[in-house]
Write a structure and sequence with these properties.
The complex is a heterodimer of chains A (155) and B (566). In chain A, 32% of the residues lie in helices and 39% in strands. Chain A folds into 2 domains: 75 residues, 2-Layer Sandwich (Alpha-Beta Plaits); 72 residues, ACT-like. Chain A, domain 2 (Alpha-Beta Plaits). In chain A, the strands form 2 sheets. In chain A, strands 5, 6, 7, 8 and 9 form a 5-stranded antiparallel beta sheet that branches. In chain A, strands 2-3-1-4 form a 4-stranded antiparallel beta sheet, covered by helices on one side. The longest helix of chain A has 14 residues. Chain A is of the alpha+beta class and 155 residues long. Chain A contains 4 helices and 9 strands. By secondary structure, chain B is α/β, with parallel strands linked by helices. Chain B folds into 3 domains: 170 residues, Rossmann fold; 169 residues, TPP-binding domain (Rossmann fold), CATH 3.40.50; 186 residues, Thiamin diphosphate (ThDP)-binding fold, Pyr/PP domains (Rossmann fold, 3-Layer(aba) Sandwich). Chain B has a 6-stranded parallel beta sheet, with helices on both faces. A 6-stranded parallel beta sheet of chain B has the order 11-10-9-12-13-14, sandwiched between helices. A 6-stranded parallel beta sheet of chain B has the order 16-15-17-18-20-19, with helices on both faces. Classes of the chains: A alpha+beta (155), B alpha/beta (566). At the A-B interface, helix 1 and helix 2 of A face loops of B.
Chain lengths: 155, 566
Amino acid sequence: MWAILSIRVENKPGILFKVTHLFRSRNFNIDSISVGVMENPEFSKMTITTVGTEKQIAQIVKQLDKMIDTIEVKRLDENESVYKELALFKIKLSEASDSIEINKLADTYGAKVHNEQKDSLIVELTSTPDKIKTFEEVLKPFGILDSARTGVTAL
Amino acid sequence: MNDKMEVMNGGKALMKALEKEGVKEVFGLPGGANLPMYDELYKSNIRHILVRHEQSAAHMADGFGRVSRKPGVCFATSGPGATNLLTGIATAQADSAPMIAVTGQVPVNMIGRDAFQESDIIGMSNPCVKYAFQPRTPQEIPEVVKKGFYIAETGRPGPVLLDIPKDVQQNEAEITFPNEVRIPGYHPWTDVDITNIERSIDLLLSSEKPIILAGGGTIISSAFAELQSIAEMLMIPVVTTFKGKGSFPENHPLSLGPIGMHGHAEANKIMSEVDCVLAIGTRFSDRSVGTFEEFEKNLKIIHMDVDPAEIGKNQTTQVAVIGDVRASLRVMLKILAKKVLKKSDGNKWLKHVNEVKDYWRENLKLHPGEMSAAKILRKLREVLPKESIVTTEVGQHQMWASLFFDAIHPGTFFSSTGLGTMGWGFPAAIGAKVARPDVPVLDIAGDGSFNMTENSLATSVLEDIPVIVFLINNFSLGMVAQWQRTFYERRMIGIDLKKCPDYVKLAESYGAQGIRAQSLDELGKAVKVGLNSEVSTVIDIPIDPEEDVLPFVAPGTSLKDMILPS
């Protein structure tokens, strides 16, 4: 089972280390993690996606809650929250038609094209992880030279 | 409201902050990076108790903390001083003992440059502290001390590390001492959960074969009287975890003793038959319950604990009562007092429990020798005053103590149960004696374990902290030897300590008293000598190295499958 955890922590050095250490020492996995300062700079918001059984996820929520540096730990409902990830793909342009085709695909998926050069371009897609995965599959035939993803953030 | 601002250095701010918390003693060892704080310790009213190894300082603080229920304080320098403390800190964390560990650190501008005696103790200690602070200015010191004590002693207690860079100890600043601190992510107190207490009562009263399982949390929250009242009111038998030993008088008619790997035969037998358990302040350690799946089969579990993260971690619970267990038990008692309790039909369950208990108390086969573990520990119980505090080392002697030494007075038995740290018992006994100089303190020891921190004899002699080391000596790492005999077809390796050292001479070389006891009579006399002695006494008791600890629940099996003496 996949879960999105939204964790409000004190904005102090070392807390990201402690949160990730907790996952490791309790034998849980982090799928993705994104961190940013909140509107009140005393706090940061960490969004962690993780995979585990219902019992494991319930336990990691409790352990996170127990941490003194965490102010609030929420498990977000996939259906009732907005969760997005930003992905960048650097695509190889082999034939003249590639650029047009990729621009078309980008339109269909709501992605943006950046940095178009003679032999490559970069597309940016902000979406859910599964849609990004689908988009990645579509891009694969052109040749993905490099890629980067931010990890999910959610509200 | 804060007190008036005063100019002083960080070391002095630390001493004043500790004094404000009521600290009268610290256990420690100085070094380069904590010299400035030691200079202020010299000028303060706090007593310094010098150890010969930092691990012992942590165990002494731990023993002090468990007995007094106030954090014990230990000091060490940076680098190896700090890493030597780690085993002691991890031990306190595993057994929820309040502690404040103060380490020196290299100066702020040297951190991260691999300076001499630099270690990232904040990073290293992260998984085994309740919290850690590294103040970067002298002004922060009073606040982190106050926060540290608050965190260490409230909720589920634990160790807190204060890592103070040398320049932060040395530099002067305008210091104020806060009377209150705010920790936004820490909420140790919860309201008493009346709804779930009522549900617990219904479940308990509707069950046919109930039992109470008292864990270490019962001792930490001093819920002794409440536990006994509930057991007696409902006439429910009581088992404990090993860490819960001492939460319920083991000479009480309702007591069955500890369950677990080396639990009492009657306790394990009955635990395998019950349909409902009221589990108080326990984390259901694998050493206590055997395999998790087997333990919870056909069993309704009511779990009372102060730590919400323990609910459902190892066992599926029907009812969870989160909160201080003493407060919860008090409310339970009040509600029960109002209910008209119908006495069950002559209480068939209790009758059965007593039959099982009587059977095993009469029929458990014991080692035949005169100096068997059972005989020497029962002799000890006979001669040792009931209010004495007992600690143990880790190994066979510890499990024999679980089996054959009855803890009678509440909160008089302490052991390293979670981390299982060899070398814990003796320094912890010294810490306990500092907390309770009015009662005798005795460490039930094994030779392998005592060997690890025996140099604390210097501390006990030079600081006038007399304790008794009851050394059950089988000249080997006995528990490992037992496992090699049982599971590795007697391929004995790395267990023979070859009668080295001679513990009588060793004790004498430190200026302590060494007595060898080779009969029960000599043993009884030696304990009496120790009780009246002004220096520590090591009683060396040679036993048969082949004696096993039985009964024994092998790892990965369930309580009902315990191996009995043949």
